[in-house]
Design a protein that fits this description.
Elements: H1 2-38, E1 45-50, H2 59-74, E2 78-84, H3 91-102, E3 111-115, H4 131-149, E4 154-157, H5 165-171, E5 175-180, H6 187-194, H7 204-208, H8 210-231, E6 236-239, H9 242-252, E7 258-260, E8 282-287, H10 296-309, H11 314-319, E9 320-326, H12 331-346, E10 353-357, H13 361-370, E11 373-375, H14 385-392, E12 396-400, H15 403-409, E13 420-422, H16 425-437, H17 440-453, H18 459-470
Helix pairs in contact: 2-18, 4-5, 6-8, 10-16
Length: 475
Amino acid sequence: RCLFYYRCWTIVWLLGIVCAIFFCLRQWITHHKQKLHSSTLEKKLHVGIFHPYCNAGGGGERVLWCAVRALQKKYDGIKIVIYTGDIDSTPSAILQKAKNVFNISFDVDQITFIFLKQRHWVEARKYPHFTLLGQSLGSIVMGLEAVCKFPPDIFIDTMGYAFTYPLFRFLAGSRIGSYVHYPVISTDMLKKVQFRQLAHNNKAYVVRNPFLTWIKLTYYRLFSKMYKWVSRCSETIMVNSTWTENHIVDLFDVPLRTHRVYPPCDIAHLKKLEHIEKNNDIVILSVAQFRPEKNHPLQLQALYELRTLLARNEDLWNRIKLVIVGSCRNDDDYERLKNMQDLAKHLSLENSIDFKVNVSYDELLKLYEQSRIGIHTMWNEHFGIGIVECMAAGLIMIAHKSGGPLLDIIETSEGSQTGFLATDAIEYAGSILNIILNPPELNESIITAARASVERFSEKEFDDQFLRAISAIFV
């Protein structure tokens, strides 16, 4: 009995310490917030946007900068505060890159950067096991640094770090909004583990072991409950696709607070491009980062199957070339690229495949003009900005029959077809062959329909939908 009372008092004592620390920290942050806001000559609403990789130059960053521009156009009395971990860059360099890469202009005088030194805590390589939990706890460290350096009136997360929301809501009293590119954990991930299916995030040794499968499934279920709780701190949740929305609604049970806001795609300029055939080649273009989930090996397997289908037509096969364009972020990506090159040699496809790494935008535009077919092989791509841009550029797109491409982007019905969907190497190869052998007028009708359909994903449409969704936390 004494031991029981001792343990109870220990728990009460520890809870008391935690509450005292929380109360003191909240008082200090409240005082700090009042002091920061009173230091300005005019009353402004401070809007903090959490995007630790704001200088990356990818599709997520286009969402960030388009959101900044839209907020500045809509609301006059606001000060934008961007939390970033790009400590090696200067504010002027970040803004200049945003202008150069995305052709977006904004009022730079009303933008402040808060540089975070704790971003390394969210790097996946730090957590070889329990990566989701490790990165989420690491984001709390980064979020605590952010809220202590500058507590905003409104906090908008544009990268999916949901575990930072309680910090800003309960410590700084901020109103919370979020833009979700993809859920940190999804019901698809749970099913992959439950049914012991091999995937890039479900290794073979786990699939083979029932006990490890049970451990991982329990871990995923507990994590999903934590993810649900922290995410519900957000008053308005924007999602980038139907696929993401379905998973968020299933996980969070918040259908009334979700808004589907398609990411802004650079389509206006791409729709003006014209096809330029080079040396009578049939160029198949792939545009995606060299990440495991993009499943580049499936593209090589599809080309191998296509060669089998064209075994009796060597002249046509010799005209076909697959150009794989991708960016490498780190050594792991470069290793994946090397493995891809080795696989191409193993399949005797090295003369039919061209790998291009970290190409400039001007070079990419030339590739769009020279290409006839686009290919994308990621399973359950949450949206697919690269797919939309290929369609806008006049390529006939073949994408995986899942996620955003299936639910939002590509229509395969006769009469309104905008592209093709496939699930395995044989289906991809068959789709490529169909496009090559189709009458020119049929392919032209697919291209015309595709270019018309992508207007739904324009920057103007994003601005309108984003402002509509975010208005709830500005009242």
